[in-house]
Every structure is written in structure tokens, then in C-alpha cells.
Specification:
four-stranded antiparallel sheet, 451 residues, single chain, 11 strands, globular, binds pyridoxal-5'-phosphate, Aspartate Aminotransferase, domain 2, seven-stranded mixed sheet
């Protein structure tokens, strides 16, 4: 039954050699091809007889991989890039080779134990209580949805008569919050921002209290604050919002998919004061915590509330129930799960937390210096001083078409990957700096192409 022969050994060497080559060299920027181009070169790979591992690997190396932009290239500054440590990437190979089941303690105790230590580090950084807990899910989208479903479940128990549930957030909240509201069929109450694009405690309490006074049959069950908006890295007023939510029995969820990684960066930690008041929060290690895709840490102050919501019941699962063991499946909208927190755990254990703080500070410093360079140029306008590591700016007088043309040229000349974004309805550029290998020279070279 156990079929490991010389052919597998040979393929293993080829795959490990390729992986080593990929780690050893600077990641190529590369770029997409059209489906037609790919069909022409690759053809159909799924056949009755199989094309063989050799050939499939070669197609991947020669054609498919170069048709993907390397998110770990230090000049990939679009969206939110990725910068996994070598340790975490290598351990992802181990997770793949080990067929671990990360859903239950019975099957995955060792893996779950290690994942939970990594989660504990994040909970301690947020000053969460000892009995808090959570789980690594696929991404921030699933993390936000799972937390909000638990929030509504708690609200339903407190106010069983309420018919229409409402989720409060801001216009800068991530698109996944709106998506969660759609899935849950709840209304969204958009709370106005202040002139710094921040959600404030004042606006939250005023808007929600007024809303409740007008609509007696509707109830806000959760407020979502963002700790580091994806577009510009803006952090909402967590402390004031948290106090209001705690007093009003409204679930306080903090979406820190990108920004809460910086809880471990001493220079910016005080901006997150109030996170300790949250009922739940998320942070994606695959964004700014140097782990490979895909991993979101979803944390609950009181994990029992999540378990009451998410535990799946079935005859074949009954043997897992009714004990005090920690089953990660019970804390989000999922059942089977990869032990996807392990690459993050391994790297954190191997390097130590100080290395994380330092790497984080490096990116924050690079972002500050990039902002200074932009301010020094009369043809560019900095939108906000970066609070974290996202730098938003405009080229005076450019239209969307100008931005797009510049961005396409930047990629086709393999100098960098920076796509236009929008702020207040206007096109802008943003540098999203989460890779400690991104240097000021990289930024200079990209800025030099804007003339
Ligand atoms: C990226 C992001 C998300 C979504 O996370 P995914 O891992 O892409 O699903 C949610 N909220 C914020 C603030 C984000 O930056």
C-alpha cells in the first residue's frame, strides 16, 4: 500500500530543487498572460493517462509560474503583498507532506497545540484575557464573517424579539464586511468618518443611538472598527468605540487583517489602545506577519460564544463532542481545515518574537521615508502621513488613464508592481510596504519613473 519508489524519490528531488531555487533567488516579478496565450503554450494537461510529474512540473516552472506575479517581490507594492520568511515557506512543505487534520484535538492535537501558542502570542499582544481563544481560518473574509455570525447569535439570545439585525461600520470598512452582511442578510448602518477618515467613538454612539431612537424594531448587534484600513492604513478610534460597545452590549469586532500585525511593533503599539475591549478581532499572518497564504488568526474574547454558534452536529462527529478538548472546527464557518497556522508558528518559534518586531519596524521606517520623498516632490501630493506602512499619494494633474498607463509600463518593464487605487472617488497611488526587503532605493527607482 505504501508506494514510495525511485520515481517518487526522483520527483521529490526535482520538487525540492525547484523550491530551493525559488527561495535562493530574488523572486521574479513576472506577470499574467491571457487564457488564449496559456492554452496555446500549455495545451490541455488533464488526460486519461496523465502527462507525468516531470512534464507537469516543467510546465509549471517554464510557463505557469512565470504567468503569476510574485507577491514576495520587494517591488510588489500593490494591494497587500506577502513576505513569508524562508522558515515559514519551508514549513509549509512539511505541513503538505504530513496530512495533518487541523479540525479536531483528537486527530491533530500536536498541530493544534502549536497553532494555539502562536494565537496566544497575538492574544497577549492585544491584552486579551487568559481564557480567550481562536482559530486560524483561510482569510480575513472568513474570519470577519465567522466573528459576526457569533455576534448575531449572542444578540439573538439577549433580544429574542428583535426581527431586523443591523451591522454598523464605516465607508472605509473592508469589502468583506459588506459581503458578510449580505450572506447574513442583515442591514448595514454606515457611520460617518471624521476628517482624518477615522471612525470615532462620538460618531459611533451618536449614529447608533439616533438609529435606535428612530427604528424601534431594528437593533445594531455589532460594530466593526478597522485597525489599519487596507487602502491607507488608517486606524479607527478603538478605545472610545470599545467603551461605547461594551456599555451598550453591542459586539465590538476589530478588523485588523492588515494592521493589527503591528501590535508587535513598539513604535506604533499605542495607536491600538482599546483593542483589549474587543469581543473579537482578526489579523492575517499572510499579510504583514511574514507567513505564506493563507492564514487569518480569528480571536474571540469568549470562545464559548463562538462554539455555541459554530459547532456542527452530526452522527459521525458525535465522538468529538462533549469533552473539554479544543476542536478548532468549532470556532468558525468551516469543518475540515488545514493546519494553516503551522508555518506561522514554526517561523515565530524559530526566529523569536523580537525578530518580528524588528522586521515590522523596518517596514514602518521605509514607509515613513517613502512619505518624505513624496513630500519633497512638488509634483506629488501625500494624502496622509502613514500611520503604519501604507503610503497614499497623488501625481498632480494625472487622470486615471495616466495612472493606468504608468502602472502597466512599470510592470511590463519589470521595475515594479503598483496599481492605482481610489480615495474619495479620485484615482490615487499607494505603496503597501510589508516586505522588510523593500528598500528606499526600490521606492526611489519607482518614483523616478513618475515624471
Ligand atoms: C485583506 C483584508 C480583509 C480580507 O482578508 P482576506 O484574507 O483577503 O480574506 C479584511 N479586512 C481588511 C482590513 C483587509 O485588509
Amino acid at each position: 500500500m505504501h508506494k514510495f519508489d525511485q520515481n517518487v524519490e526522483k520527483l521529490a528531488k526535482q520538487i525540492i530543487d525547484y523550491s530551493l531555487w525559488r527561495l535562493r533567488n530574488d523572486p521574479p516579478l513576472d506577470g499574467p498572460m491571457s487564457p488564449d496565450q496559456l492554452s496555446k503554450i500549455v495545451g490541455n494537461t488533464i488526460t486519461a493517462k496523465g502527462i507525468g510529474g516531470d512534464k507537469a512540473l516543467n510546465l509549471f516552472k517554464e510557463v505557469l509560474a512565470p504567468a503569476c506575479i510574485s507577491t514576495d517581490n520587494p517591488r510588489y507594492l500593490s494591494f497587500i503583498p506577502s513576505a513569508p520568511t524562508n522558515a515559514s515557506t519551508l514549513f509549509d512543505l512539511v505541513v503538505g507532506a504530513s496530512s495533518l487534520y487541523g479540525g479536531s484535538w483528537l486527530e491533530g492535537a500536536g498541530a493544534v497545540f502549536a497553532e494555539n501558542q502562536a494565537l496566544r502570542w497575538l492574544m497577549d499582544l492585544a491584552q486579551f484575557p487568559k481564557n480567550s481563544g481562536g482559530v486560524f481560518v483561510q482569510g480575513g473574509t472568513v474570519g470577519n464573517l465567522s466573528a459576526l455570525v457569533a455576534a448575531r447569535n449572542r444578540a439573538r439570545k439577549i433580544n429574542p424579539a428583535t426581527k431586523k439585525w443591523v451591522l454598523a461600520c464605516s465607508s472605509e470598512s473592508h469589502s468583506s464586511i459588506k459581503a458578510a452582511a449580505d450572506v447574513m442578510d442583515v442591514e448595514v448602518l454606515k457611520i460617518p468618518l471624521d476628517d482624518q477618515c477615522k471612525l470615532t467613538g462620538f460618531n459611533v454612539s451618536k449614529t447608533i443611538d439616533e438609529f435606535h431612537a428612530i427604528y424601534k424594531d431594528k437593533k445594531v448587534f455589532a460594530v466593526v472598527a478597522t485597525a489599519g484600513t487596507t487602502n491607507l492604513g488608517i486606524i479607527d478610534e478603538l478605545g472610545e468605540i470599545g467603551i461605547y460597545c461594551n456599555q451598550s452590549n453591542i459586539w465590538f469586532h476589530v478588523d485588523g487583517a492588515y494592521g493589527l500585525a503591528a501590535l508587535c511593533a513598539p513604535s506604533v503599539r499605542n495607536q491600538f489602545t482599546g483593542i483589549e475591549l474587543a469581543d473579537s478581532f482578526i489579523v492575517d499572518p499572510h499579510k504583514w506577519l511574514f507567513a505564506p497564504f493563507d492564514a487569518c488568526a480569528l480571536i474571540y474574547r469568549d470562545p464559548k460564544l463562538a462554539k455555541n454558534t459554530h459547532l456542527q452536529k452530526a452522527g459521525y462527529l458525535e465522538t468529538l463532542e462533549g469533552n473539554e478538548e479544543f476542536n478548532p472546527s468549532d470556532y468558525a464557518i468551516h469543518l475540515t481545515r488545514r493546519a494553516r497556522g503551522l508555518p506561522f508558528w514554526f517561523s515565530l518559534a524559530a526566529h523569536g518574537t523580537s525578530a518580528y518586531s524588528q522586521a515590522m519596524e523596518t517596514t514602518i521606517t521605509t514607509a515613513k521615508q517613502a512619505a518624505e520623498l513624496i513630500v519633497s516632490r512638488s509634483d506629488l501630493t501625500l494624502l496622509y502621513q502613514p500611520l503604519l506602512s501604507i503610503v497614499g499619494f497623488k501625481k498632480n494633474g494625472w487622470s486615471l488613464a495616466d495612472y493606468k498607463k504608468w502602472s502597466e509600463n512599470l510592470l511590463s518593464s519589470q521595475i515594479g508592481f503598483v496599481v492605482p487605487s481610489f480615495h474619495n472617488g479620485e484615482p490615487i497611488l499607494r505603496f503597501s510596504i510589508i516586505n522588510p526587503l523593500t528598500t528606499l532605493d526600490d521606492i526611489k527607482e519607482i518614483l523616478a519613473t513618475i515624471s
